[in-house]
Task: inverse folding
């Protein structure tokens, strides 16, 4: 009898920017593998690039907890039980299937078009420059996460949504609790509730006095009867937490990856070509794949992926980080090559749930890396790699701190 390998996402301490050794081992065996989860149940682990897209693009695959998503940790299982009992919609449309998902998503897509996001570039550049001024005026070494990587996307998303940045400690702490794999259901539920109440309060204020922001736009739809106030608050929570932690982790780990590779770093620091900057951002997104560990789905009917039957009700874990290192799509995939322009990377997912905020994230990163490297050409790590506290406990990979000097 063949034994089924364990699901294991622990990245190695020596190569913290590479996918977990166990994930790579599964990928070497084939694009689809059966893995055993912590509770003894099994799920399909999808590690190949073509198969990743086949699953996430499949109409008979669901993302709703109540349909039986695979549960990747004890804490997550308990949390999913409580979500299923309440309703999938409590996490916003990221955990809802079409047509409800599409109905809600459509209401906010216009805020994230490339054109709308481009209009935010000058203000984002100003934010980056001000944060760097403050960093340079302060003591060194400094923590890049606190001084730059976290405030930049938090300020941008606050301005876009119409959330007061003064409340950033509150919304950052609660967002971290939501995406921590090990949060208890009480902790995660509490954080969600606090954010939902907070957003509901803001919606109340904007009902009385609308502004020129995304939440005020949702308030107009509430007034028109197209959206309930609760749905508007949940969408606000989703965009607020999805909109800053992810980008912050990319700024942190991208800077770390560049500091470890002086030749590649020099391309960005010394060049001025926007095409290179755009390609560099895509390559860092591919190489680092902060959305790691697997997107969870469940088959609604029997489906066939890579010649393998996945039966109705079986859980599927779709792994971005191995798809992004698939050598049949990205030659020499373990090499960071800022000039490769890896158009087909899947760090933003694929299919109907593909990241709504990706134009915004791209623009922020295109501003952040060159600003940092050009304004602080002597930027250097102020700790050994082994001392950096990586976020092994999150759905989104990153580092809690990045000590830098100059
Ligand atoms: C580098 C930064 C980011 C990365 C790597 C990222 C990654 C992802 C991924 C992988 C998904 C798909 C989840 C799934 O299929 O289950 C997703 C969905 C989503 N992201 Fe992002 N994201 C980033 C930034 C942002 C930003 C700035 C926003 C701003 C609001 C945002 C908002 C969302 C929303 C609302 C969804 C749900 C989309 C849906 O279900 O239709 N993300 N993101």
Result:
């Amino acid at each position: 009898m063949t034994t089924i390998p364990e699901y294991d996402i622990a990245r190695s301490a020596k190569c913290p920017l590479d996918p977990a050794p166990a994930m790579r081992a599964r990928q070497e065996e084939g694009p689809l593998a059966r893995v055993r989860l912590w509770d003894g149940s099994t799920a399909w682990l999808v590690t190949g690039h073509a198969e990743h897209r086949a699953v996430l693009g499949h109409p008979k695959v669901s993302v709703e907890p109540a349909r039986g998503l695979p549960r990747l940790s004890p804490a997550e299982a308990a949390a999913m039980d409580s979500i299923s009992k309440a309703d999938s919609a409590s996490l916003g449309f990221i955990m809802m299937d079409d047509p409800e998902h599409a109905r809600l998503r459509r209401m906010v897509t216009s805020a994230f078009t490339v054109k709308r996001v481009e209009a935010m570039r000058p203000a984002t550049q100003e934010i980056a420059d001000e944060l760097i001024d403050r960093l340079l005026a302060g003591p060194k070494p400094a923590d890049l996460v606190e001084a730059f990587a976290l405030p930049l996307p938090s300020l941008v998303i606050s301005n876009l949504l119409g959330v007061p940045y003064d409340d950033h400690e509150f919304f950052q702490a609660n967002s971290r609790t939501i995406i921590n794999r090990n949060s208890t259901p009480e902790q995660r539920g509490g954080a969600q509730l606090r954010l939902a109440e907070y957003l509901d309060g803001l919606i109340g204020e904007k009902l009385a006095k609308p502004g020129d922001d995304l939440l005020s736009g949702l308030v107009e739809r509430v007034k028109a009867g197209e959206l309930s106030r609760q749905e508007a608050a949940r969408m606000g929570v989703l965009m607020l937490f999805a909109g800053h932690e992810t980008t912050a982790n990319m700024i942190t780990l991208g800077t770390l990856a560049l500091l470890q590779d002086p030749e590649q770093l020099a391309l960005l620091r010394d060049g001025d070509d926007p095409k290179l900057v755009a390609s560099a951002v895509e390559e860092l997104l591919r190489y680092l794949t902060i959305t790691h560990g697997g997107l969870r789905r469940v088959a609604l009917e029997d489906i066939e992926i890579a010649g393998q039957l996945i039966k109705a009700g079986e859980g599927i874990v779709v792994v971005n980080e191995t798809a992004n290192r698939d050598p049949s799509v990205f030659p020499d995939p373990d090499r960071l090559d800022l000039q490769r322009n890896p158009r087909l990377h899947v760090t933003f997912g694929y299919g109907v749930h593909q990241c709504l905020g990706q134009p915004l994230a791209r623009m922020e990163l295109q501003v952040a890396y060159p600003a940092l490297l050009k304004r602080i050409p002597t930027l250097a790590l102020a700790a050994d790699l082994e001392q950096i506290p990586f976020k092994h406990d999150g759905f989104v990979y990153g580092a809690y701190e990045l000590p830098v000097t100059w």
Remarks:
- The domain at 21-405 is CATH 1.10.630.10 (Cytochrome p450).
- Residues 63, 93-94, 105, 238-239, 242-243, 246-247, 250, 290-291, 295, 347-349, 353, 355-357, 360-361 surround protoporphyrin IX containing FE (CB under 6 Å).
- The first strand starts at residue 32 and ends at 36.
